[in-house]
Structures are given as structure tokens and as C-alpha cells.
Design brief:
Layout (H helix, E strand, L loop, with lengths): L19 E8 L2 E6 L3 E6 L13 E7 L2 E7 H4 L12 E7 L7 E7 L1 E8 L4 E2 L13 E7 L2 E6 L1 H5 L2 H10 L1
Parallel strand pairs: 2-11, 5-7
Antiparallel strand pairs: 1-2, 1-8, 3-6, 4-5, 6-7, 9-10, 10-11
Length: about 170
């Protein structure tokens, strides 16, 4: 007796390049997330030395174990109103790749850090098209987690504006 076994063709799973571990944080009532691989550390607010003639969102620099690191207030960068710091306000030290040299470290001030999430591709949707006048290269997508939406940031795009990279290159 001859048996025939049918094998279904199995395709390799499509890897969603946006999936992975993300650190979530709040700016006002909105929740944002950045890839954990870009996060170097989270520190409390400390004295920030103001640097003259820098963009409004650049609060200044800090000395972090002998390295001078620029600090950006993400609220101001995104056009949100400035807010008094609370006991939950912190600086997330981010490392992003540079086209012209070594990776750049920058601190971002956020209202509070929430949690680390492991997001799958099915939990992430593409960023809606807001029209030609609203380009959003700094958005990776939107994550749907427990009936909430978290905005996934490509923090490299956020922190590599010409205005910020020129300041970072001066400090390197």
C-alpha cells in the first residue's frame, strides 16, 4: 500500500523590522516609545548647563561621568508646552548612529518613564498619512497595547536634525 504525504509549503515568517523591545515614556497624556537598543541609561534630572545660542528645545549640557552630553527637552522639540519638572521627570540617555563619526549620545527629558514592552509586528500599525505637508520620518509606527496607542519614535531621526547634530559635533 502506498501512502502519499502532502507537505504544505511553509513560508518563512516575515520579519517586521519595527518589532522588538521598546522603552515607553510619557509626555503629558501621550505615551511614546523608543527602541531599548538606543537607550544607554535613565537618570534623574540634574543641573543642566545652559549653552547660548542653541535651539529652544536644547536645554544645555550635563557632565555624565566625564562626558559632556547635550540635553533636549522632548516636550519642546515636539511643540508641547514647557512644564515644571516633577519627581518623575527624568533624562533618558540615548545613543544614535552618526553618518560622520562615532555614535552620538544625547539626553532627552521626559515627564516619566513607564515600562519596557516587547512588541510584535501584529501590535504595530503603520503611521497614518497626514498629508504631504506633514512628513513624519521620526515615527516608526503606532503600537496598540491594552486599548491604548503608543507612538513609536525613530529616535535617530528625532535627534539628527541639522540643528542638533551641529551642536553634538561641537561637543565631541
Amino acid at each position: 500500500m502506498m501512502t502519499t504525504t502532502l507537505y504544505e509549503k511553509q513560508e518563512a515568517p516575515v520579519l517586521n523590522s519595527r518589532a522588538g523591545k521598546f522603552l515607553t515614556f510619557c509626555l503629558g497624556k501621550e505615551e511614546f516609545a523608543v527602541r531599548v537598543m538606543n537607550v544607554r541609561e535613565i537618570i534623574g534630572i540634574q543641573d543642566i548647563t545652559t549653552v547660548p545660542q542653541t535651539p529652544v528645545c536644547v536645554k544645555g549640557v550635563i557632565n555624565l561621568r566625564g562626558k559632556v552630553i547635550p540635553v533636549v527637552d522632548l516636550r519642546l522639540k515636539f511643540g508641547l508646552p514647557e512644564q515644571e519638572h516633577s519627581e518623575r521627570t527624568c533624562i533618558i540617555v540615548i545613543q544614535v548612529d552618526s553618518d560622520t563619526g562615532p555614535p552620538l549620545n544625547t539626553g532627552i527629558i521626559v515627564d516619566e518613564v513607564s515600562e519596557v514592552l516587547n512588541l510584535t509586528g501584529s501590535e504595530i500599525e503603520a503611521t497614518p498619512d497626514f498629508g504631504d505637508k506633514m512628513p513624519n520620518p521620526h515615527l516608526l509606527g503606532l503600537a496598540k497595547v491594552k486599548d491604548k496607542v503608543k507612538i513609536l519614535l525613530d529616535i535617530g531621526q528625532v535627534l539628527t536634525d541639522p540643528e542638533l547634530t551641529s551642536m553634538q559635533s561641537i561637543l565631541q
